[in-house]
Amino acid sequence: MKGQAWTTDFMFAMLIFSIAVVLYLTYSIQPNNFSINKDFERFSSYVLSDGLPENWNETDMIYPGILSNGVINSTKFSMMKNMNETKISSSYGITSEFYVNVTKRDGTISDIDGPAEFGKYPSTASFVLKKSRISSFGGEPVIVNIVVWRW
Prior knowledge:
Elements: H1 2-47, E1 51-52, E2 63-64, E3 67-68, E4 71-72, H2 74-82, H3 85-92, E5 97-103, E6 117-119, E7 127-137, E8 140-150
Antiparallel strand pairs: 1-2, 3-4, 5-6, 5-8, 7-8
């Protein structure tokens, strides 16, 4: 009888220990996933907007956006292409890396003062989130691909 009680106690202790380890691992990894999700939502909503103020430039912007009245604005896009990535990240309040491109219906990258892309492409990354949205540029439908990633 004494051996059976000890086995039950040991099994109960192992169950509690296992639950504690699982909870620790779940919540110690979760903040990184939460942070990139927050960055992704913030980046994608800000970049697919008019920006603030609506007719922003590099000196007065609060955060930049590539649209004007729901259509891609080539001037705004070109300014973002030429802007320092750190400046974009800090204006959006994100810590993740990003990449944006605009493609035609056939999948080729559009031309907005050269290839319509900015940011760093995630060649090797641990966490990658992607969103594609349909927009318009030059009267033609295009696809805006947004990627936010982290090592």
